[in-house]
């Protein structure tokens, strides 16, 4: 069994014309750091897939301060308007190609994070607070996932 962790970026600056360039706020940085500590304590992710948008990259940087990744990739298939089927297929391909990674973290945005959970575990579409992480168990042999839980910065202890 593998673990898939799907994370929404931390709190970002308000919407603007260039959505991809929005930065994390100070609160967003704190959320990302707290969740990085929590991820290290609970799941120790070793595979990382992150959106190219600035706020997702900044979130991943905070998480990386506390976690050691064996594989990392920036992926345009997990931006807000991306196709969740393509994203799920790509993630499953990466999992198969990198057996050394037992726990995978995907750092992206609403609504793709909710749609991706539903794509991997049909009928489960959680709403993500900023910085929240959904936890799924992934059976590689059956290519089936089970949605387990969601955790937000406000309800985790580190």
The CATH superfamily is identified as Phosphoglycerate mutase-like
Spans of 5+ residues with little confidence (pLDDT < 50)?
Answer: none
- The number of strands is 6
Strand order of the largest sheet: 3-2-4-1-5-6
Kindly report the CATH topology.
Rossmann fold
Walk me through what this model shows.
Strand 5 and strand 6 (144-151) form a beta hairpin. With 158 residues, the chain is of the alpha/beta class. 32% of the residues lie in helices and 23% in strands. Helix 1 packs across helix 2 and helix 3 (84-97) crosses helix 4. The protein has one domain: Rossmann fold, CATH 3.40.50.1240. It has 4 helices and 6 strands. The model has no long low-confidence stretch (mean pLDDT 97). It has a 6-stranded mixed sheet. The two termini are 25 Å apart.
Describe, in short, the structure shown.
It comes from Pseudoalteromonas porphyrae. This protein is of the alpha/beta class and 158 residues long. The protein has helices spanning 26-42, 54-64, 84-97, 112-120; strands at residues 2-8, 47-50, 71-74, 103-108, 133-139, 144-151.
Descriptors for this entry?
Rossmann fold, His_PPase_superfam, single chain, 6 strands, six-stranded mixed sheet, 158 residues
What is the element layout, followed by pairings?
Elements lengths: L1 E7 L17 H17 L4 E4 L3 H11 L6 E4 L9 H14 L5 E6 L3 H9 L12 E7 L4 E8 L7
GO molecular function, one term: protein histidine phosphatase activity
GO cellular component, one term: cytoplasm
Pfam family, one: His_Phos_1
């Amino acid at each position: 069994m593998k673990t898939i962790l799907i994370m929404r970026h931390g709190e970002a600056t308000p919407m603007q014309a260039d959505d991809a360039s929005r930065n994390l706020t100070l609160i967003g940085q704190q959320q990302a750091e707290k969740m990085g500590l929590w991820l290290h304590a609970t799941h120790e992710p070793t595979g990382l897939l992150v959106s190219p948008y600035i706020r997702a990259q900044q979130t991943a940087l905070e998480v990386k301060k506390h976690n050691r990744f064996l594989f990392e990739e920036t992926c345009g298939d997990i931006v807000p308007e991306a196709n969740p089927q393509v994203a799920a297929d790509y993630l499953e391909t990466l999992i198969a190609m990198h057996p050394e990674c037992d726990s995978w973290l995907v750092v992206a945005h609403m609504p793709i994070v909710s749609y991706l959970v539903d794509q991997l575990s049909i009928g489960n579409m959680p709403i993500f607070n900023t910085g929240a992480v959904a936890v799924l168990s992934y059976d590689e042999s059956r290519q089936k996932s089970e949605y387990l839980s969601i955790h937000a910065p406000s309800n985790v202890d580190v």
